[in-house]
Amino acid sequence: MKIIVKSTNFSLTPSVNEYINSTLMPLEKMFQGFGETEMRVEVGRSTFHHNKGEIFFAEANIGIGKNLLRARSEAFSVQAALDEVRDELRSGVLKFKGKKETIFRRGARSISKLLRVSPLARFRRK
Asked: How far is residue 104's CA from residue 110's CA, in Å, rounded to a whole number?
């Protein structure tokens, strides 16, 4: 998985960059069946005139084929915002994978129903 980081109204320090990689790289295990994926992460300050409140934000976009998983969070610190984004992405990926498995199982069930032989059918012995 390739992580592209962008900062807005915020200087991206090596410690923040390292925290982004350590927080979001474990999600790579969940994307192994989808091929090469790209994650775009944006972190920054939403406002400059506030001294209190949720002033930092983190946003992550993951493209899986034609689908886009997106998570955004605002918090008191960049690390807290990234933790919330990680949790949202994890739940979104599990939901996406569950839908794919459900569709596959539903198709397999309908095919097996078509291939079943009726118990009323009689077979002749030669």
From this structure: 10
